[in-house]
Amino acid sequence: MASYVVDLMHFLDDGGCLVPGHPGRVGAFYARIAATASLHGCEEIVLTALPCRRRPGRVPCPGHIDLIRHEDDTIEWACSDCVDNGFIRGWEATRWDLRPAAGAVPPGDPIDLLLSQDEFAAIRNIDGLSRQVEVLIDGAVRVGGGVRVRGWRAAFTGLVADLGRAATRSRGTRRQTLRTIAERMAELAGEGA
To answer: Which of 117, 91, 86, 106 minimizes the C-alpha distance to 18?
Structure first.
């Protein structure tokens, strides 16, 4: 299979937002890859928690996106399971460029939360997450059989609030899963206080 070579700007309107319809949905996939890459250093191989978008035989690919951001800011990505791969350019200075400004890193040590793939999927699929929480989720990486979410206390506090709102709108197992994750995050955010 051929590699996709895309310029993220081709998926954006004049206001810097994703265009509507199918092109915007495809662009959203590339934008999430760019956001994740921007949160990690150049030439660092990142095993992301972003799921592959392919559906061979109408069955979702079980793979996740692995990426590296090169010194020239070209992002190279590939699925961990299938042959889907490509390069992304033109993401700099968009809303998905999440590189911190100099001195913008909060004081204190980051907090790590380990989640199962199912727990992470429950969080990733919540609509209306705050921008700070989206950054937290976009930076997640695969470790062992799960996902590590790393961030600072303020971001985890925001995620606890978002999870609480989502849990009240959910039912059954999903509601309990979101509440359990929120309780674990609240404990972690409280540590070091």
So the answer is: 91
pLDDT band for position 1 (cuts 50, 70, 90):
low
Q: Does 122 lie in the same domain as 173?
A: yes
Domain-embedded: residue 29: yes
Are 120 and 149 within 8 A, CB to CB? yes
Element (H, E) at 190: helix 172-190
101 inside domain: no
Question: What is the C-alpha to C-alpha distance for residues 92 and 143, in angstroms, rounded to an integer?
Answer: 28
Q: What is the pLDDT of residue 103?
A: 52
Beta bridge partners of 68: 76
pTM of the model: 0.81
Task: Please state, in angstroms and rounded to a whole number, the distance separating the CA atoms of residues 156 and 138.
Answer: 13
Q: What percent of the chain has pLDDT over 70?
A: 94
